[in-house]
Amino acid sequence: MSTPRRRTLLSLFALTTLLPLACLPALAQKPSTLRIGYQKSSTLLTILKVRGQLEQDLAPLGVKVSWHEFSSGLPLLEALNVGGVDLSADVADTVPVFAQAAGAQLTYFAQEAPSPSAQAIVVRADAPYATVADLKGKKIALTKAAGSHYLLIAALDKAGLRFKDIEPAYLTPADGRAAFERGSVAAWVTWDPYLAGVQRQSSVKILADGRNVADYQRYYLAATSYAEARSDVLGVVFEALRKTGKWVKQSPKEAAELLAPAWGLDAKTVELANSRRSYDVRLVQKDALGEQQRIADAFYAEGLLPRKLDATAVPLWRGAR
User: Fold this and answer.
1) Coil vs helix vs strand at 158
2) CB < 8 Å & 24+ apart, contacts of 287-295
3) Which residues of 184-196 are buried (b: 16+ CB within 10 A; e: fewer)?
4) Model pTM?
5) Which parts of the chain are beta strand (E)?
6) Given CB 3.0 to 4.6 Å as the disulfide criterion, which of 18, 76, 92, 233 pairs with 70?
7) How would residue 295 be classed by pLDDT, with cut points 50, 70 and 90?
8) Residue spans of alpha helices (H) in 83-159
9) What contacts 14, CB < 8 A, 6 or more positions away?
10) Under DSSP, is residue 242 helix (H, G, I), strand (E, B) or coil?
């Protein structure tokens, strides 16, 4: 990857904790380790990690698995782009758009069907805000380029406002919640399981979620070089994700109890979060990327992307060969 392209990605994402290129291992022709990047909201891969399922499933291919945790989707895709990991756990639909704008060489591997109520704009229960329009001129906490970033833009637009009509406070989920609870911001835009956590542990109300505003589809991505070299490995992972997604919806209490210690949350909070996610894993189809285009257009219109994008001009994994 060229230095100018990496600088562009860094300037877009404003990241401060990235692996230096000099320390990243070179990708072999047939890599024998699958390096997976994930975050706290990576439900299905977290379950597979806790169970050791992928290690078992990939053993016949002579492939080992290593796990790398990130605070949110942006640093995760940066690491994927520069070779720090091979496969990204699910990230919100907005994140790949920013990566594409920076020229990242990433392949759309799989997609979870929409979960629009799994992200929301929350305010304190006693706050004097009844609608999104009431947030005009207020400071709002959000994670930059997360799916919730697009939710805020779309919700403001629906309320007749522009993104410039509010004051954004770009924070990680943990810092966003802290700022919200001490009253440093008027609202917080977040996603599950953070949304479920603040709903159950604090007195809040939801001004808007993604229903009829933002679909909130989550995408799994692979480094394009890895997708080309180890389509067989991705096929095993895809099948494991698909089966695990069905199990979560069929066994919500068991899934919550398994995830609770891994997430540091109580099982009821996890179950609430999982109830709002589809976990319906499927291949990505080019003609179903309309929401990605709307996201790209919205961020460009607000001056948050440097150029217009064709969000459908991305490589798609077509299944194991």
Assistant:
1) helix
2) 288/111, 289/314, 291/93, 291/214, 291/215, 291/217, 292/93, 292/96, 292/97, 295/93, 295/94, 295/97, 295/150
3) ebbbbbbbbbbbb
4) 0.84
5) 33-38, 64-69, 87-92, 106-112, 119-124, 139-142, 167-170, 187-191, 204-209, 218-223, 281-282
6) 76
7) very high
8) 94-101, 147-158
9) 144, 170
10) helix
